[in-house]
Task: structure prediction
Amino acid sequence: MGPEAAKYIGAGLAMTGLIGAGAGLGILFGNYLQAAIRNPAAAAGERTYLFLGMALAETMGLFGLVVGLLILFK
Amino acid sequence: MAGIQPMEQFLIHHVVEGPKFSAPGIGIIDLSITNSVLFMLIGTVIIGTFFMLSAKRALVPGRAQALAEMLYGMIDEVLTGGIIGDRGRPFLPFIFTLFMLIAILNLIGLAPGGFTVTSQLAVTGTLAVLTFATVLVVGFARNGLGFFKLFWPSGMHWGMALFLMPIEMLSFLIRPFTLALRLFGNMLGGHVVVYIFASFVIGLGAYGLSGFGLNTLGLLGSGLSFVMVVALTGLDFVIAIIQAFVWSALACVYLNEVVNLDHGH
Result:
């Protein structure tokens, strides 16, 4: 296995950071939905914060993407 | 598989050749109009003409005016009004410009033949630095040196606060990077995934047509990939708007911290 192959494997492994982002998004939207069903009147007011939380959870996964890109194109 | 190059769509090439200057300390500045610049201009023209045409100030708004008023009202109520409060009014034009620019640039990228300007880290990075600089300038202008209270966690023993201050500072300084990376990553990822599935449609379809028997399964895969392309394009439209919204919402949250620093809003 040459260094080239190791590079691709490393880039692929870096993307495992998205596992956490996926789990985080699931928790986020699941809990939002649960809360929204229990109290539909309050759901609309918290939608901004839902998207904010989504953005922040996603960023953590995208750091993995950046590491992957760094490995691939450095 | 050599023909599949998912990154090729993000390449920048010159459309109109322009002069090159060598700036001291920076290097060579190329003033050519690239496809990135071209599509940014198209986006600006679209936004400009839309708001010129829709701003008729009719008492009973037409369709275009109703849409423009709805967008404006949404940013006013949900973002600057909802997050910052009354003090957010002066920032409405800035936030609204950010929202419209990012949303339109994302949507242009989804049009066939369009170039996604926001998939360039240079573009999102510049916008992020602009947003961050606005927060810094507003923060120092409103609070003076009291701006540094932002990093001091309140309601805590001073030893613990001293320990947490570097972390607070770090999380403040990392904001432009996360802003830029979020938009860049989402746009890049969305387009690459659509490209990969579109290449499956053609690849598996050609394989399915190449013979009978097991090869026919290729047609099934091709059809499934086509459904995925349609679904992912739909998702990308949602993401295009949501990312623009998220960017402006985060800009509001960051501005809120410095604008309402003194009365803990």
